[in-house]
Amino acid sequence: MKQEQTKKIALIVGGSRGIGRVISLKMAKADYHVWLTYKHNHQAAHEVKKSIENEGGTCELFSFDVSRYEDVEAALGPRLETETPDVLIYNSGISKDNLLIWMTKEEWNSVLETNLNGFFNVSRAVVFSMLKVKRGRIVVISSVSGQIGQAGQVNYSASKAGLIGAAKALAREVGKKNICVNVVAPGFIETDMTKDIPTDQVLPLIPLNRIGKAEDVASVVHFLSTEEHMYIHGQVIGVNGGLAM
Predict the structure, then answer these.
(1) Cβ of 88: how many Cβ atoms within 10 Å?
(2) 63 partner at 20 to 30 Å CA-CA among 76, 104, 119, 206?
(3) How far apart are CA 234 and CA 230, in angstroms?
(4) Axis-axis angle for helices 18-29, 42-54 (nearest 10)
């Protein structure tokens, strides 16, 4: 049986590093109890938890592999029987770049399994819980690569484009139940994933002439997650400095 929640819950999948870390901190400052999931970097996850608690917030950690359906069910299933996240932010993602002609089956499968299958594994359970209480917000972190493609990222672009299609279809399914679903598509953002990209080659492509920061993405995610007057639904919001228009 569902119990009365005293504090809103934000389930942040992939919330320990990079963009996810900043989102976690921002949602905690907005007085959400953070359910932070991560795969295996225990140190990074505990550092985020400590930072949240030092600011007076609350955070729980869930360690599992989003690509494994059984692991997701074991980690989240029991909690979802009694509590429903007010917000699901799907930020889990990996990249294994290579030209298609050299790409291995493992490079293809592992990226699709984490980035796209992981969304199914998590959202299926959470949406079922949200439908019971007839409320919720879902924000999916895609990428500009899923909008316009990127050479050397056929696997990553496919997974991120798939997230856009999945989110749009889900938005049509659950909108009448007061569940808003939207996508945020970052461009080049300063994270570990983009640290090896040559800035001098990227900047000429960006009208704002700067690489984005995780805070740029987190602010949009925060708005979509917390704004009371919400009529944005099934949309893809680019945070890319004008790289894709």
Answers:
(1) 28
(2) 104
(3) 12
(4) 20
SS3 of 9, please? Answer: strand
First to last CA, the chain: 46
* Structural domains in the chain plus CATH codes: 9-187+215-239 (3.40.50.720)
How does pLDDT run across 196-215, given as a tens digit for each residue? 777 888 899 999 999 999 99
> Burial of 235 by CB count in 10 Å (0-12 exposed, 13-18 middle, 19+ buried)?
middle
- Residue closest to 12 by CA, chosen among 4, 28, 2: 28
Give phi and psi for 28, each to the nearest 5. Answer: -65, -40
Catalytic-labelled residue, pool 32, 38, 90, 156 = 156
Q: What is the DSSP string of 141-209?
A: E--THHHH--TTBHHHHHHHHHHHHHHHHHHHHHGGGTEEEEEEEE-SBSSGGGTTS-HHHHGGG-TT-
Distances (CA, A) of 203 to 106, 185, 187, 193: 32, 18, 12, 17
**Residue 76 contacts by C-beta under 8 Å, 6 or more apart in sequence?**
11, 62, 122, 125, 126
Confirm whether 156 is a catalytic residue. yes
* pLDDT 10s digits, 99-154: 999 999 999 999 999 999 999 999 999 999 999 999 999 999 999 999 999 999 99
Dihedral sign of CA atoms 187, 189, 194, 200 in order: positive
